Amino acid sequence: MRRVACRRLPEYEEGFTRMLADFAEVVEKSSREESLLARIDWNRLPRHVAIIMDGNGRWAAQRGQPRVAGHRAGVEAVRAAVDTGARLGLGALTLYAFSTENWKRPRLEVDALMRMLKRYLRLELEEIDRQNIRFQSIGRTEALAGSVRRELQKAVERTAGNKGMILSVALNYGGRSEIVDAARAAIKRLLAEGRTPEELSEDDIAQGLYTRGLPELDLLVRTSGEMRISNFLLWQAAYSEIYVTETLWPDFRRVHLLEAVVDFQRRDRRFGGLKLVAKAK
Q: Is residue 225 predicted with pLDDT exceeding 60?
């Protein structure tokens, strides 16, 4: 694989070489994945990628299977996304696993989703820890069953000292609920500090978000071709790039995340401003 021609500090060079070596273990020569890796500018990786994992039900319906089969098949896509993100050296990867609206689904489907979540954590925790990933869950997780919360806490405690990518799984999560929770926390701080409502700032709200401490969201990926963000990371997505793929979540693999990263690096990110081009003399 060729390297992007640019000047790097010795410590960055070491990390870059290690990343390529990591991918050499899992990427076949002359494959689409290798071609995409060769096109990535390693100095311009998104710091934080979030994924709306959609299409499990349609995937199952296309095969004449129950919806639960689609969720079960989606676990392999989670493995691929987490592994690829860690090997790329992303700062954070956030996965939309269960929304506040998902409680409206049939009880059997909800129970199956929670069982699969617990099974995933039990089976994958050792590998997550080995890859130096720090795990956390975000959302109103206090409403989850005690057995689910215990598995989440085990993963948090096991990986608390890790310094690599932060893997956040959004559970009982809603973007509007998050903003409400952040606003409540900010108001409490204002009152405790003797400040007035007029002094409320964006920073005050940001301090109460579930994602506080994470890098700014750079790239939001949605599978299954739907053109909406479904109440996910509403505050954080204000200036993120959005990438939509027709691929249904159970079919999502390393190549699809690499395609999203390459597409992200083609974007001209101005954050509301303009890039001034010097006039030719």
A: yes
Domain coordinates in residue numbering, the chain:
1-44, 46-266
Name which of 158, 151, 152 is nearest 128 in CA terms: 158
- Tokens representing residue 57 in the block: 């039900």
Asked if 247 and 221 touch (Cβ cutoff 8 Å), the reply is no
- 91 pLDDT higher than 70: yes
- From the list 22, 102, 251, 263, the catalytic residue is 102
List 22, 43, 54, 162, catalytic entry:
54
pTM of the complete model: 0.90
Those residues with Cβ within 8 angstroms of residue 148's Cβ, 6 or more apart along the chain or in another chain: 114, 117, 118, 171
Indicate the burial class of 202 (C-beta count within 10 angstroms; 0-12, 13-18, 19 or more).
Answer: exposed
Instruction: Measure CA of the first residue to CA of the last residue in the chain; give whole Å.
Output: 39
The correct answer on CATH 3.40.1180.10 for the domain covering 46-266 is yes
Mean pLDDT over residues 208-223, rounded? Answer: 98
Catalytic residue flag (residue 54): yes
